[in-house]
Amino acid sequence: MSEPSYKTMGQQFGRRSWAEPWKIKMIEPIHMTTRAERERAIVDAGYNTFLLRSEDVYIDLLTDSGTSAMSDRQWAGIMLGDEAYAGSRNFYHLEEAVRTFYGYKHVVPTHQGRGAEHLISQAEIRAGQFVPGNMYFTTTRLHQELAGGTFVDVIIDEAHDPQNQHPFKGDVDLEKLQRLIDEKGAENIAYVSLAGTVNMAGGQPVSMANVKALRALCDRHGIKIYLDATRLAENAYFIQLREDGYAQKSIAEIVLEFCSYTDGAWMSAKKDHLVNIGGWLAVNDADLFDRLRNLVVVYEGLHTYGGMAGRDMEALAIGIAESMDDAHIRARVEQVRYLGTLLLDWEVPIVEPVGGHAIFLDAKAFYPHIPQDQFPAQVLTAELYLDSGIRGMERGVVSAGRDPKTGDHRYPKLELTRLAIPRRVYTQAHMDVVAESIKEVYEQREKTRGLKMVYEPAQLRFFQARFEPA
Ligand SMILES: Cc1ncc(COP(=O)(O)O)c(C=O)c1O
After folding, report:
1. Which residues pair with 417 in a beta bridge?
2. How far is CA 383 from CA 62, 132, 393, 440, in A?
3. 255 neighbors 236 (Cβ within 8 angstroms)
4. Cα separation of 257 and 206, whole Å?
5. What are the strands, taking DSSP E only, across 393-434?
6. pLDDT in tens, 198-207
7. How much distance in Å is there from the Cα of 268 to the middle of ligand 1?
8. Would you say residue 1 has pLDDT above 80?
9. How far is Cα 253 from Cα 227, in angstroms, rounded to an integer?
10. What angle do CA 411, 414, 416 make, to 5 degrees?
């Protein structure tokens, strides 16, 4: 018998196939637009995919934030909302879930991640202090700057190289951090802002060895570590897969150990936690908790709802437990890797190794002929939409914004288009459609031209900026 020419996914990788640990109970129809409709839509949106109407989008990979499919249990939880202004039972479920899975003592609910970033930045940064971190994130850095801090990137150099194969490109460079402490003095460091995984580096993980060593260094100088835990369950999967001694540990055990080396965390629950809205901030220090509870009532809502409805907190509490399921995390991260593997096989330039939540296309490598001040990643994002109605997001010079001191564009080394995969939403067939569209855009790359910015908001410009062909 001749060798069969079609192979299942598992066979292609020399193993038995496995599938998502769920089945679909409800569907949401989507429809494909024509090229002419998309040409009109992208001009109306000023070549900014944030300004498109979602009904003009076919496969929506703008973000993995708030776009997950909730489970039947989470939807059942929505019906159990206790909408009391104070002391909602759903808050206590949320508090218990955070304590159980993350191990922190005190929990402050917030409406989403940036609400928590605002509170921790206001509470823990004095004007003039420095905030070292493993690469910036847009909203995180902005809140640190609004509190009077200056963010300093102390991620390892490998993170800035899209082809570097380092297994933990999210790691902090401890020598860079030590130099900053020596130069500025420990009293002028507000805290270390640590994220796992690192969104802007391509969803790259931090190793357990690194956070352990970071804890030791910070202890020598009396510096706190606060963690952006937004995608920590995905980070834990990479530790399980790649770090010695963790293959037999569960995602839940790894998350708990990781958090034990930090002093607190903030969370955009719209990612790992499989809800459409929500967030929290959790710390161990009782005095800090007291200050945060005072702040939350000013900016978010009472300390037992923080801007969320009771039903949202219930869905979130259930989502936290679901997010720690090993089979779920494997299916989630491996779906992203499936898309990345196709692209790598076709020699399309993407950030390697493939990260946890998204594929990041290397726009500089797509368009070496487009200068960075003509926004190559913005161009690539628009081209992909034009080809097939797939929506991604610019993560390059537009997202990096302007230097508050000089007013110049900040030119990040990484000029990327991000295609973030929502959790439990799309199938392998959707990934095939996405891969083929990217290939087509790549093949057309030499004909593609740059953009100029014709409207620029003062803060977080990538959300609302408008462009025209250069
Ligand atoms: C790493 C990271 N931190 C913080 C945030 C901010 O969270 P939110 O969008 O819920 O305000 C995000 C959101 O995209 C994120 O990816």
Report:
1. 361, 394
2. 14, 36, 12, 10
3. yes
4. 13
5. 393-395, 416-420
6. 999 999 999 9
7. 5
8. no
9. 17
10. 110
Whether 444 contacts 408, CB under 8 Å? no
Element (H, E) at 435: helix 428-443
CA-nearest of 309, 430, 412, 424 to 364 is 412
CA angle, 108 then 112 then 113, to 5°? 85
Query: How much is the average pLDDT of 42-53?
Result: 98
- For tokens 């100029």, the residue is 452
Helices (H), 162-231: 174-184, 208-221
Q: Which residues line ligand 1 (CB under 6 A)?
A: 65, 112-114, 137, 139-140, 195, 199, 228, 230, 268, 270, 279
**Could you tell me the two tokens for 104?**
């922190």
pLDDT digits (tens, 9 = 90+) for 112-136: 999 999 999 999 999 999 999 999 9
Helix ranges, 261-391 (H): 286-299, 310-323, 326-345, 363-366, 376-388
SS3 state at 267: strand
Residue 238 corresponds to which amino acid?
F
pTM above 0.90?
Answer: yes
**How far does residue 447's CA lie from ligand 1's centre (Å)?**
35
List for the chain the helix, strand, coil content (%; round to 5). 45, 15, 40
Give CA–CA dist 182/202, Å, rounded: 30
- Residue pointed to by tokens 């998350």: 255
In the predicted model, what is the mean pLDDT of residues 333-346?
Answer: 96
- Catalytic hit among 91, 130, 137, 246: 137
Q: 466-469 and 451-455 as β-strands: parallel, antiparallel, unpaired?
A: antiparallel
Token digits of residue 158: 């490998």
What is the Cα–Cα distance from 80 to 343, expressed in whole angstroms?
Answer: 44
Residue nearest to atom 2 of ligand 1 (CA): 230
Sheet containing 416-420: order of strands: 358-362, 416-420, 393-395
Given 271, 418, 424, 461, the catalytic residue? 271
| Rounded Cα gap, residues 291 and 40, in angstroms | 50
Residues 140/198, Cβ–Cβ less than 8 Å: no
What is the rounded CA–CA span in Å between residue 239 and residue 208?
A: 7
What is the Cα–Cα distance from 353 to 170, expressed in whole angstroms? 12
Supply 60's token pair: 């929506």
Q: Which residues contact 4 (CB under 8 A, 6 or more apart)?
A: none
The alpha carbon of 364 is separated from its chain's Cα centroid by a whole number of angstroms, namely 21
Residue 186 and residue 162 in contact, taking contact as beta carbons nearer than 8 Å: no
Distances (CA, A) of 405 to 181, 323, 408: 22, 41, 8
Can you name the residues that pair with 189 across neighbouring β-strands? 130
Q: Are 236 and 202 in contact (CB under 8 A)?
A: no
Hey, is 455 helix, strand or coil? strand
